[in-house]
Design a protein that fits this description.
By secondary structure, the chain is mainly alpha-helical.
């Protein structure tokens, strides 16, 4: 148990796509596939229990993460404010689940899933491999962000629209500019727009600063379109069917 929370972890470091990482990704996938199976069987009480339970997981894991950083002397305003997309969507996703807010859902579906999926595939876990607290925290937190948006889509029947896509693109860039200003004031690197992260990430294959930010915008647009594709195809089939009727 001492090694589970220690700052100076001497166990196996995190390795990308190691058996423990792949197992964790598989479990996240299974939870979300379960929602597809469960959606027609879920009672109102079951749905409410799932929403509140997942919201609690998001908040407990996040507050535990802040507490661990505080007690190990690592909490700073330059690194721990909830300004990264995934840190922000921990709180927004919890609020969305409790209130069933469609306004939050639009952003959680595009920004939450896209950001959390990247973090699941290339976690910022540093030296903390399985079974350290940090390993579980990064998987639980980001996996729950994805699951929250998938739940609202699959079980509660929410869906994005073209207007959702436009709103997310506009306000997402407004947020990026605001965080860029805060980075300059704090000397921080929220959203990784001041420089590339020190740990391995998808940004490593992109050009140097500031050009990789433009690539991030382009990659984000592609991911958003891919996320919207199932709904675009459904709408297209519905129009074709209506025209043939």
């Amino acid at each position: 148990m001492g090694q589970f929370f220690t700052k100076d972890y001497t166990g196996e470091p995190f390795r990308l796509f190691s058996p423990s990482h792949l197992t964790a990704l598989g479990l996240v996938l299974l939870v979300n596939l379960f929602l597809v199976y469960w959606r027609d069987k879920a009672t109102p009480e079951g749905r409410r229990a799932f929403r509140y339970g997942l919201a609690a997981v998001l908040l407990v894991v996040e507050f535990s993460w802040h507490l661990w950083n505080w007690t190990t002397g690592q909490w700073t305003a330059q690194t721990m404010l909830p300004l990264h997309l995934c840190s922000l969507f921990v709180f927004l996703s919890a609020l969305m689940l409790v209130t069933k807010s469609y306004a939050i859902y639009e952003f959680a579906y595009f920004l939450g899933i896209a950001g959390a999926m990247q973090a699941l595939l290339t976690p910022d876990a540093g030296i903390y491999g399985f079974p350290h607290f940090r390993f579980f925290q990064v998987i639980l937190s980001h996996g729950s962000i994805v699951t929250a948006a998938v739940y609202m889509t699959v079980v509660e029947g929410c869906r994005p629209t073209w207007r959702s896509l436009r709103r997310v693109a506009v306000w997402g860039n407004v947020y990026l500019i605001g965080v860029g200003i805060l980075n300059a004031l704090l000397g921080s690197n929220y959203l990784f727009i001041a420089h590339k992260p020190e740990t391995a990430s998808l940004l490593d294959v992109l050009p140097p600063w500031p050009w990789y930010i433009l690539y991030m915008e382009g990659l984000g647009a592609v991911l958003f379109m891919l996320l919207y594709l199932p709904f675009a195809l459904r709408d297209w089939r519905a129009r074709v069917t209506a025209e043939q009727a």
